[in-house]
Every structure is written in structure tokens, then in C-alpha cells.
Design goal:
mainly alpha; two-stranded antiparallel ribbon; 3% strand; flat
Length: 136
């Protein structure tokens, strides 16, 4: 009890940030599920769809870090020009997200995602990362 009194402000901040993160991720999950539905994505409930994207975020995050880091590093050390680094980034990040989505799709029986829906969302999730390749 004494711990919570001492760290009340940090605890409240942690809860508030966690809530904002979950709400934002839920909105992204709903939008992504709507887009994927056009390509054959099926789910039992909204909760299972949100859970699908939350777990996918956790599973694919390490792979996405490696994919993004490799292409950005090659661009920074001038081993690749900007256009090739962007293409490499899009390919690697799409593959990393695709694998994460496939793993979670395989493990969650309440979700059924087609390969096309997973590929489309993987590519769409990779697109915002192109902004990291701006010239310094």
C-alpha cells in the first residue's frame, strides 16, 4: 500500500498511457479489420478481431524492427540509394508483418484470414515507414 502512495502519479500516468494505447490500437484494429474484410477476413466477434491485432503487434514488432533497421542502416552508410532502400524496406516489412499475421491467424481459431487480406494489410502497414527515409 505504501508503494502506491509513493508512486501514485507514475501509476496514474502508466494507466492513462496504457488506456490511450489500447484505445488507439483498437481503432486501428477496427479499421484494418474492415479493410481486410473486403479480401476474405472473417472473425467471430469484435473482441477477437481486436485481440488478433493486439497479439499481431506484439509478435511482429521484433521482426519489423529488424526489417526497418536493416534497410535504414544500408541507406545511412550509403550502401544503397534511397529508392532501393525504400523498396527493400517495403519488402522486408511486408514480409515481417505477413509472418506475424499468419502466425496469429494460425493460432486463433476465431479468426479466418485469407492470404490476400494478410498481404494487403501487411503492405498497408509498411507504407507509413517510408517517411523515415527523408534526407537529413
Amino acid at each position: 500500500m505504501n508503494f502506491f502512495k509513493k508512486n501514485k502519479e507514475q501509476f496514474i500516468t502508466f494507466i492513462a498511457c496504457g488506456t490511450i494505447f489500447i484505445v488507439a490500437l483498437s481503432v486501428i484494429a477496427l479499421l484494418s479489420g474492415t479493410i481486410m474484410r473486403f479480401f476474405g477476413f472473417r472473425y467471430d466477434s469484435i473482441g477477437s478481431m481486436i485481440l488478433f491485432f493486439v497479439i499481431t503487434t506484439i509478435v511482429s514488432y521484433p521482426m519489423n524492427l529488424i526489417a526497418g533497421g536493416l534497410s535504414k542502416a544500408l541507406y545511412q552508410i550509403k550502401r544503397m540509394n534511397k529508392n532501393r532502400a525504400i523498396v527493400l524496406y517495403l519488402i522486408l516489412d511486408t514480409i515481417a508483418t505477413y509472418l506475424g499475421l499468419m502466425i496469429v491467424d494460425y493460432c486463433l481459431p476465431s479468426i479466418s484470414a485469407s492470404h490476400l487480406s494478410i498481404l494487403v494489410m501487411s503492405f498497408l502497414f509498411a507504407l507509413p515507414g517510408i517517411e523515415d527515409f527523408k534526407n537529413p
